[in-house]
Amino acid sequence: MTASRRGRPRSEDVDSAIHRAALDSLVELGYAGTSIDGIATRAGVARPTVYRRYASKAEVLTAAIAAAFHESNPSVPESGTAREDVRILLTNTIRMLRNTPIGEVIRAIVPELARDPDLRRLSRRLLDDRRKLLRAAIERGIERGEFARSIDVELAIDGLLGAIYLRLLFTGQPINRGFAADLVEQLLGRP
């Protein structure tokens, strides 16, 4: 028998408002300028409402980023080919990084990872969750014979995501429409 929860159920609208406020604050003010008080004010909720959900600023921000990533890629697609599934996952990630505040959020958080162990730990968990989708699609492709059995799956994921984040954070080279397909072709090749 499970214990019943006390109080009202959590509101998805409030969660969404907190997430939007956290991301907007981070883009506008940077990590150091973002605070729980500021997030609560932007979200139109009381400070305790935020603290009932999250223990720290790092938790709020990583939860907001996780929600955005989940919205862009909620599950492994089932297009019929693993090659296309990987391309879709990468395209959705690129679209999110280019067309939503998440690209700016990632740029703001990266310098803080070296200084904030809590943020680093939570970000690693977020990255691990996102890698699971690519891992499942690539392993499916190996099982079906679409990708070579010799592929190092973890290294392939590093290459696929690393190329996207390298362009986003450092080189400024375009992340255009065909980039995801090019990555799949170059890094996963043919069996």
Keywords:
Tetracycline Repressor, domain 2, elongated
Question: What can you tell me about this protein's structure?
Answer:
The structure is a single chain. By secondary structure, the protein is mainly α. The chain has a domain at 64-188: Orthogonal Bundle (Tetracycline Repressor, domain 2). It has nine helices and no strands. It starts with 11 loop residues before the first helix and ends with a helix. Mean pLDDT is 90; it is low at 1-5.
Name the shape in a single word. Answer: elongated
- Radius of gyration of CA atoms, rounded to a whole number: 19 Å
- Highest-level CATH class of one domain: Mainly Alpha
Count of helix runs: 9
Query: What's the count of strands?
Result: 0
Assign the CATH topology of one domain. Answer: Tetracycline Repressor, domain 2
Beta-strand content bin: under 5%
Compute the average pLDDT: 90
Could you give the order of the helices and strands? HHHHHHHHH
Structure class: mainly alpha
How would you summarize the topology of this molecule?
Elements: H1 12-33, H2 36-43, H3 47-53, H4 57-72, H5 82-99, H6 102-113, H7 117-144, H8 153-171, H9 179-188
Helix pairs in contact: 1-2, 1-4, 1-6, 2-3, 4-7, 5-6, 5-7, 5-9, 8-9
